[in-house]
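Q: I'm building a small set of examples for a reading group on sequence design. Run inverse folding on the following structure and report the sequence directly after it, with nothing in between.
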């Protein structure tokens, strides 16, 4: 899936235009009314971003880890049992074993990746560290305007899409040729192209666009999303991927039954 030629450039630009600013108020220490106001503003801003790309990336990463671990175990068991080359992904016993090995792991995708509350939670945590209620409300309102919507989409392309994809592509944790990922990769591609990545967007003549890009609130928010936000998304995806691999390991004992079923069907002798 093509994600443009400016992956690293987009990330660097976000960092260059965003100075190192001290963290702002957090929820702690505020009076109840101010805290409620800030929580509402922060939540509104967090929910203004589209979770489609992080969710799609997470599905691919977690499913790939589960599939790779299941296939690794099946191959290991086959070698130890001395099975012939017929013990492979084409064998019905292998296929059924793979489905059972990954069942709990794939359930984690539905409960911990597809439901985007984790995406909003990461943002709410990080936004609350750097923005006050007024700043969060200003950005959330700006994102509802025509020019603000375009700036929001640009941030989603350069950060939520391209930086996340770069992190996993450069570390070989997304393999677009791995069987079993076809549906997730199609969803990932669709989420990216829905943002119209090559449509021309001109912000230089709009005063509100310039204000957002140049004032403290916009700068703090962009830096937060580029660094702490991305790190939070990656940390969650990686944690679920590790949990998925463990779920496959927990189901490992069932492989012996399918090895025996394969022997009975093919007449393969015990090693």
């Amino acid at each position: 899936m093509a994600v443009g030629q400016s992956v690293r450039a987009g990330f660097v630009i976000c960092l260059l235009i965003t100075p190192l600013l001290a963290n702002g108020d957090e929820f702690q220490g505020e009076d109840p009314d101010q805290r409620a106001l800030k929580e509402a503003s922060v939540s509104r801003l967090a929910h203004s971003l589209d979770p489609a790309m992080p969710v799609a990336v997470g599905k691919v990463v977690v499913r790939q880890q589960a599939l790779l671990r299941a296939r690794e175990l099946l191959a290991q068991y086959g070698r130890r049992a001395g099975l012939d080359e017929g013990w492979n992904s084409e064998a019905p016993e292998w296929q059924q074993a793979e489905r059972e090995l990954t069942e709990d792991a794939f359930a984690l995708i539905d409960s911990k990746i597809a439901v985007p509350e984790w995406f909003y939670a990461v943002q709410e945590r990080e936004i609350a560290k750097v923005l006050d209620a007024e700043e969060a409300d200003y950005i959330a309102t700006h994102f509802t305007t025509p020019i603000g919507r375009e700036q929001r989409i640009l941030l989603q392309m350069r950060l939520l899409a391209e930086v996340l994809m770069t992190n996993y592509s450069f570390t070989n944790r997304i393999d677009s040729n791995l069987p079993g990922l076809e549906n997730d990769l199609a969803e990932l591609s669709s989420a990216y192209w829905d943002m119209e990545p090559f449509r021309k967007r001109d912000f230089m003549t709009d005063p509100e666009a310039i204000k957002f890009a140049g004032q403290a609130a916009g700068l703090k928010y962009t830096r937060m999303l580029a660094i702490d936000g991305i790190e939070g998304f990656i940390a969650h995806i990686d944690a679920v991927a590790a949990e998925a691999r463990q779920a496959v390991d927990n189901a490992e004992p069932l492989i012996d039954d399918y090895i025996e079923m394969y022997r009975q069907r093919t007449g393969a002798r015990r090693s």
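The chain is about 70% helix and 0% strand.
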